[in-house]
């Protein structure tokens, strides 16, 4: 077995890898060593590399990768500071590679690495542009999803994606796939680079309909770390689908703001009606609804719309304070205009809705450039 095949550092002047495995990760320190060991086993005999793209994990993920990379040239780390998000991490990882085939898998060891050679071969042979590890073809399973709620989220996303995809895919929510790097690079300018479902983005954004193969794949239980799949991920997923259907005319971040604003309007109206039922006057009820909407909008914008710029620690509290100040300016217009409409028409619902929309527009136009500005 050559030095290239034994999973250790290749000799000076060795050929570039035939495949690059891109592993986007955040707080996966405990999984780094097992991941590299697994890749050494299944990719023995190939020219390969693994590129961990770490979003500056506080648990020392990047340091764990660097410790291995010092003695193993198969292993690299791209450490991102000030940028977050699985899709953008995958894009940066692919663009940092020169291999003709790129594969993507999560850093949590839930993807069955034993099927990785089949995915790579399906693309390297020229038979497919993209090969997908599917949990929903014969021989695949998704038993590793933690509970019924996560199964429901995944199934809901699959149904949504299948309604708009240009090709048939049983598992468009899969994060385990291989692709031609040249196709990925050609498509990269069209990718939304937001959210967690880069496969769907790639298939929908490709300039020509890609040839897709599905390979049965299991989804194993997570052994360490925490799952990132939650309701907010599905919301990001839905906005990305809308972005693709709108052909880029309505950017994902704008639609995220619009969705958050719509939720804020509903919260505003619900609280207002609740306070009204308790006997509060219009102005008191409107302020109560507005404050609750502000807090809801801040939390959702921080988690969904600006997940890649999420505020944490001291910045979270300073951002919240700034957001409240900005929104309170809009709230005066909200309550003032709503009050005038109420006096003129004596209609609570319409008055509150008009005032709430004014507040949402101000929130989008101003706080997006002040609170979550790019750093």
From TrEMBL:
InterPro entries on file: DPM1-like (IPR039528), Glyco_trans_2-like (IPR001173), GtrA_DPMS_TM (IPR007267), Nucleotide-diphossugar_trans (IPR029044)
Keywords associated with the record: Glycosyltransferase, Membrane, Transferase, Transmembrane, Transmembrane helix
Cellular compartments annotated: Membrane
Record's keyword annotation contains Ubl conjugation: no
Stretches assigned to the Glycosyltransferase 2-like domain: 20-184
UniProt name for this protein: Glycosyltransferase family 2 protein
A Gene Ontology BP annotation from the UniProt entry: glycolipid biosynthetic process
GO cellular component, one term: membrane
Sequence ranges assigned to domain GtrA/DPMS transmembrane in this UniProt record: 257-372
PANTHER family membership: DOLICHOL-PHOSPHATE MANNOSYLTRANSFERASE SUBUNIT 1
Transmembrane intervals: 254-272, 278-299, 320-342, 348-372
């Amino acid at each position: 077995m050559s030095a290239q095949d034994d999973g250790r550092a290749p000799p000076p002047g060795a050929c570039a890898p035939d495949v690059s495995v891109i592993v986007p990760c955040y707080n996966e320190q405990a999984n780094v060593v097992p991941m590299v060991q697994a890749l050494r086993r299944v990719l023995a005999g190939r020219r390969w590399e693994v590129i961990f793209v770490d979003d500056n994990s506080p648990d020392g993920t990047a340091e764990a990768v660097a410790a291995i990379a010092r003695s193993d040239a198969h292993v690299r780390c791209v450490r991102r500071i000030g940028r977050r998000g699985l899709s953008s991490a995958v894009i940066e990882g692919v663009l940092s590679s020169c291999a003709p085939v790129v594969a993507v898998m999560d850093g949590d060891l839930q993807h069955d690495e034993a099927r990785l050679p089949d995915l790579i071969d399906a693309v390297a042979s020229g038979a497919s542009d993209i090969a997908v590890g599917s949990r929903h073809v014969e021989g695949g399973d998704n038993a590793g999803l933690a509970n019924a709620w996560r199964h429901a989220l995944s199934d809901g996303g699959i149904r949504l994606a299948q309604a708009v995809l240009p090709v048939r895919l049983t598992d468009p929510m899969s994060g385990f796939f291989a692709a031609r790097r040249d196709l990925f690079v050609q498509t990269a300018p069209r990718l939304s680079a937001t959210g967690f479902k880069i496969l769907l983005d790639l298939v929908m954004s490709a300039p020509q309909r890609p040839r897709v193969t599905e390979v049965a794949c299991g989804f194993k239980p997570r052994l360490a770390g925490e799952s990132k799949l939650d309701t907010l991920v599905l919301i990001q997923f839905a906005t990305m689908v809308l972005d693709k259907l709108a052909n880029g005319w309505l950017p994902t971040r704008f639609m995220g703001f619009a969705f958050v604003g719509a939720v804020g309007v509903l919260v505003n109206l619900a609280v207002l009606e609740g306070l009204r039922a308790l006997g509060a006057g219009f102005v008191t009820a409107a302020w109560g609804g507005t404050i609750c909407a502000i807090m809801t909008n801040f939390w959702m914008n921080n988690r969904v719309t600006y997940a890649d710029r999420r505020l944490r620690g001291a910045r979270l509290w300073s951002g919240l304070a700034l957001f409240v100040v900005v929104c309170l300016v809009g709230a005066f217009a909200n309550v003032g205009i709503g009050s005038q409409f109420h006096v003129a028409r004596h209609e609570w619902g319409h008055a509150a809705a008009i005032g709430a929309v004014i507040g949402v527009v101000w929130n989008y136009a101003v706080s997006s450039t002040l609170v979550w500005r790019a750093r």
